[in-house]
Write a structure and sequence with these properties.
3 helices
C-alpha cells in the first residue's frame, strides 16, 4: 500500500510537471510579422492623418498602431493552423473596417504601399462609442462644433477630419463622400504573403553633428531597395530614397540612438541597421556652411548664441522664385545675412528683402554683435498681411495660493500695419482659457505691445496657483481668428513658470513658530526658501532637516550674517543622515533661516521637513 501510494504521487507529479512546462499552443505557428499600410480616403492627405489607426487581430491581444506613413507591423503572432482570424481597423472619426476570415499561416501583407487599406471618414464617436455607420448623427456632431478652432471649448478633434485645426465645410464634404455607408460596404483588401525581406542597411555613420542637427550616411544592402525609414530614439523621423540625410529637431547636449530600416517596392521592411549613438553638442546650430541646419519657409527658427562672435548657419532652398523677407522676431543684437552656395553675399533690396531663385541653395548666417542671447527668426515670401506672434511672457512673483499677474508681449512680424481687434487666451496646464484679454490697438510693422491679461473665469483677473513646481502657461493669440495673418499657426506660445512654495528673499521671508514643522521642496537649482523666527526666551536651539540628502539649512541674524556653521551628520558608512544648526538665540531678536540646495551645480529635487526646537 505504501509503495502504491508513492507511485501514484510520482505519476501525479510527472503529469503536473509536463502540464506546466508544455507550451500552451504546442502546435501553433509563430508568425514573424503581419504588416501593411492604412490610409484615409481623403483629398489633400497629409502625413499626420495616416497615423493613429489601431490594427487588431480580434480575439487576441495582438495589435499595432500606424505611424506617420500609415505603416503597421504586428510581430511574433501565435497562429493556430487551419484557423481564420478577423482583423479590425479603427480610429475615432473613421468607419470601422473588418477584414474577415484571414488565414495567417505565414508572414502576410494587408495592403501595401501602392494599394493601402483605405479608411472612410465620418463615423463620429458619441460618448466614446461609434455606431459603424456614417449618417445624420455624424453630421449633427460636426454641426455642434462647426467653425470651432483648436483651443475652443467646443472643438472636437474627431470632427477635424482634414486635421487643419478647424471644423469647417471641408470636414462636412469628407463625411458626405461616403454618407450612409456601413462597415459592410468596404471593398475587399489585397492580402499577400511576404517575400524575403530586404537586408538591413550597413555602415551607418555621422559626418557631423550640432546641438539640433545631424548628417547621416549609410550603405545600401541590395539593389532592390526603394527607400529608407530613419528612426531616432525609436521614433520615425523621416523617409528618404537617398543613402544620406540631414535632419534637425534634436535637443542640445543629449544622447540619441539612431537606426535605419530599408524597404522594397512591396513595402517589405528590413530589420534595423546597427544603432548609431549620437551625442549632440551644447552649441545648438552649426557654425559653418557645411554644418548648416536645414530650414523651411514660414517656419520659426530659434537658437541661442553661446558667446560673442558665435555664428549659426541655416540652409534654405526656396520652392518658388520671388521676393523673400527675413524677419527677426526676438534678438536685440541679432544680425543676419544671406549668402549663396559659394559664400557670396546675396544683396538685400532693403528691409531685409531678398530676390531668391527656386531650387538654389542659400545660407542664412546669424551672428550676435555684442552679447550672448536667445533669438527667433523666420524667412518667408513677402505679403500684404500683418502677422502676430508672442515674443515674451511675464508672470509676477509667484507663490502657491497668491495671486499672480500675467502680461504678454505681442509683436507684428507681418508686412503691413495691424488694424483690428483680437483676443489673447491663457491656458494653465490642462485648464483651457482660464484668463483672457481683448486687444484693440493699431500695431506697426515690427512693433511690440505689452498686454495685461485681466479677465478670467468667474470674474478673476489673476492666476492663483494651487501647487508648487513648474506650470505650463500656453498663450494663444487671435483665438477668434479675427485677423487675416501671413501665418495662422504661429499664434501659440508655451511659457514655463516655476511656482515656489515659500518666499525666496529676506524681505519676503515667512514667519514661523518654534516647534512648528514646515514641509516644503526645493524645485530648481536657484530655489531658496526663507523663513524667520523670533524666540520668546533666550536659549540653545536646533534647526534641522532630518533625513535630507541634498538640501541644507542656514541660520542668519537680523543683519543677514551667518550665526553658526551648518553641520552635516553621517552614519558609520558615510551615508548622510541629516543637516542641522545648533546655536544660542536671544529672546525677541529676529533670525532668518535659508533652505537651499547643498550643491546647486549638481542639484537634485528634494522634499524637506524643517524642524526647530529648544535643546533641553
Amino acid at each position: 500500500m505504501f509503495r502504491v501510494g508513492r507511485c501514484i504521487i510520482f505519476v501525479l507529479l510527472f503529469i503536473t510537471f509536463n502540464w506546466i512546462t508544455s507550451p500552451a499552443n504546442s502546435n501553433g505557428l509563430t508568425i514573424k510579422k503581419i504588416c501593411g499600410y492604412v490610409e484615409p480616403e481623403i483629398v489633400g492627405l497629409n502625413m499626420d492623418m495616416r497615423s493613429g489607426f489601431i490594427v487588431r487581430i480580434v480575439g487576441t491581444e495582438a495589435h499595432a498602431i500606424t505611424d506617420s506613413n500609415g505603416y503597421f507591423e504586428i510581430k511574433g503572432f501565435q497562429s493556430t493552423p487551419g484557423k481564420t482570424y478577423d482583423i479590425q481597423i479603427t480610429k475615432d472619426g473613421y468607419l470601422k473596417r473588418m477584414i474577415k476570415e484571414v488565414q495567417i499561416n505565414s508572414s502576410i501583407y494587408i495592403g501595401d504601399g501602392a494599394t493601402p487599406v483605405y479608411m472612410w471618414a465620418g463615423d463620429m464617436p458619441v460618448k466614446g462609442v461609434q455606431d459603424d455607420i456614417i449618417n445624420i448623427n455624424d453630421v449633427i456632431q460636426v454641426a455642434m462644433c462647426f467653425n470651432a478652432i483648436k483651443g475652443d471649448d467646443n472643438f472636437n478633434p474627431s470632427c477635424d477630419i482634414e486635421a487643419d485645426g478647424a471644423i469647417n465645410i471641408k470636414d462636412v464634404i469628407a463625411i458626405s463622400k461616403h454618407f450612409n455607408a456601413t462597415s459592410n460596404d468596404y471593398d475587399s483588401v489585397n492580402i499577400s504573403p511576404i517575400d524575403e525581406e530586404p537586408e538591413a542597411p550597413e555602415n551607418l555613420k555621422s559626418s557631423w553633428v550640432t546641438g539640433t542637427t545631424v548628417s547621416l550616411s549609410w550603405s545600401s544592402p541590395a539593389s532592390n531597395i526603394s527607400g529608407y525609414d530613419v528612426y531616432c530614439n525609436d521614433n520615425l523621423i523621416c523617409t528618404t530614397t537617398n543613402t544620406n540625410v540631414v535632419f534637425t529637431g534634436l535637443t542640445p547636449n543629449t544622447v540619441n540612438i539612431i537606426y535605419i530600416k530599408a524597404y522594397d517596392s512591396k513595402g517589405n521592411r528590413s530589420l534595423p541597421s546597427e544603432s548609431l549613438i549620437v551625442t549632440t553638442t551644447m552649441d545648438d546650430h552649426g557654425d559653418t556652411k557645411e554644418m548648416a541646419t536645414p530650414i523651411d519657409s514660414e517656419c520659426e527658427i530659434s537658437g541661442a548664441f553661446q558667446e560673442v562672435g558665435d555664428l549659426d548657419y541655416f540652409k534654405f532652398v526656396p520652392e518658388e522664385s520671388g521676393i523673400y523677407i527675413l524677419k527677426t522676431i526676438v534678438g536685440k543684437t541679432l544680425a543676419t545675412k544671406i549668402v549663396d552656395n559659394q559664400g557670396n553675399d546675396v544683396g538685400s533690396a532693403g528691409n531685409n528683402e531678398y530676390n531668391l531663385n527656386a531650387g538654389f541653395e542659400y545660407y542664412i548666417v546669424a551672428a550676435t554683435t555684442s552679447r550672448t542671447e536667445e533669438y527667433r527668426f523666420l524667412i518667408r515670401s513677402k505679403t500684404t498681411k500683418p502677422d502676430l506672434t508672442v515674443v515674451g511672457v511675464n508672470v509676477s512673483s509667484v507663490l502657491v495660493g497668491n495671486p499672480a499677474k500675467i502680461s504678454v508681449q505681442v509683436k507684428n512680424v507681418g508686412d503691413v500695419v495691424l488694424r483690428g481687434s483680437f483676443r489673447i487666451e491663457i491656458d494653465i496646464g490642462e485648464q483651457k482659457s482660464v484668463l483672457w484679454a481683448d486687444c484693440n490697438a493699431d500695431m506697426d510693422v515690427g512693433e511690440t505691445i505689452k498686454y495685461d491679461i485681466n479677465n478670467g473665469i468667474g470674474g478673476i483677473s489673476n492666476w492663483i496657483p494651487d501647487f508648487a513646481g513648474n506650470h505650463n502657461i500656453t498663450v494663444n493669440i487671435d483665438t477668434k481668428n479675427e485677423i487675416d495673418e501671413v501665418i495662422e499657426d504661429n499664434n501659440s506660445y508655451v511659457y514655463v513658470s516655476y511656482v515656489d512654495d515659500y518666499p525666496d528673499s529676506y524681505e519676503t521671508a515667512m514667519h514661523i513658530e518654534i516647534g512648528q514643522d514646515i514641509k516644503g521642496s526645493i524645485g530648481i537649482a536657484s530655489d531658496i526658501d526663507y523663513f524667520y523666527i523670533t524666540p520668546s526666551v533666550t536659549g540653545i536651539y536646533q534647526i534641522e532637516l532630518p533625513n535630507s540628502k541634498f538640501t541644507n539649512v542656514y541660520l542668519y541674524d537680523a543683519n543677514k550674517t551667518q550665526v553658526e556653521k551648518t553641520v552635516i551628520s553621517y552614519d558609520a558608512r558615510n551615508n548622510r543622515l541629516k543637516c542641522y544648526v545648533k546655536a544660542t538665540l536671544k529672546a525677541n531678536e529676529k533670525y532668518y533661516l535659508g533652505v537651499k540646495p547643498a550643491n546647486a551645480q549638481n542639484y537634485v529635487f528634494e522634499n524637506y521637513t524643517l524642524t526647530i526646537f529648544e535643546v533641553q
